[in-house]
Amino acid sequence: QLQASGGGLVQAGGSLRLSCAASGSTADYYAIGWYRQAPAKQRELVAAISTGGSLTDYGDSVKGRFTISRDNAKNTVYLQMNNLKPEDTAVYYCNRPPNWLLRRTFEYTNWGQGTQVTVSS
Fold first, then answer.
1. Residues 66-94: what's their mean pLDDT?
2. 3-class secondary structure for the chain?
3. Of 67, 72, 86, 91, which one's alpha carbon is 20 to 30 angstroms from that of 15?
4. Pairing verdict, β 90-95 and 76-81
5. What pLDDT does residue 52 have?
6. In the chain, % of residues over pLDDT 70
7. pLDDT band, residue 83 (cuts 50/70/90)
């Protein structure tokens, strides 16, 4: 199971670090993606990291501002979010695609609770 945490309320230009902690399995066996869904919008990929961490992928709107990383010893994947904008407001989820190639297209059936990020202007 994956548990997202670290969300909160922050002013525009501020930073937050989200954590995705894995339990019951070894996170380093899997690619992990961060996704977000804003009200009335489709869920979208924010960032993804491959099993060993050598590959990363970012949504166009967050490139240069967000950084995904992983600490396999702690079974945790992080999303460092800098220079936050009001349009980053959303519920953020982490999930595990079956393989790296499916990180953007896999249709997950279980999303968990996610963590709310609210950016005020």
1. 95
2. CEEEECCEEEECCCCEEEEEEECCCCHHHCCEEEEEECCCCCCEEEEEECCCCCCEEECCCCCCCEEEEEEHHHCEEEEEECCCCHHHCEEEEEECCCCHHHCCCCCCCCCCCCEEEEEEC
3. 72
4. unpaired
5. 85
6. 95
7. very high
Dihedral pair phi/psi, residue 23, rounded to 5°: -130, 150
Token digits of residue 28: 């380093």
Q: Write down the pLDDT at residue 22.
A: 87
Token match 């066996």: residue? 29
- Residue 70 has a pLDDT of 92
CA-to-CA dists, residue 109 to 2, 71, 115, angstroms: 14, 26, 18
Token pair, residue 112, equals 């968990």
Cβ pair 53, 70 in contact under 8 A: yes
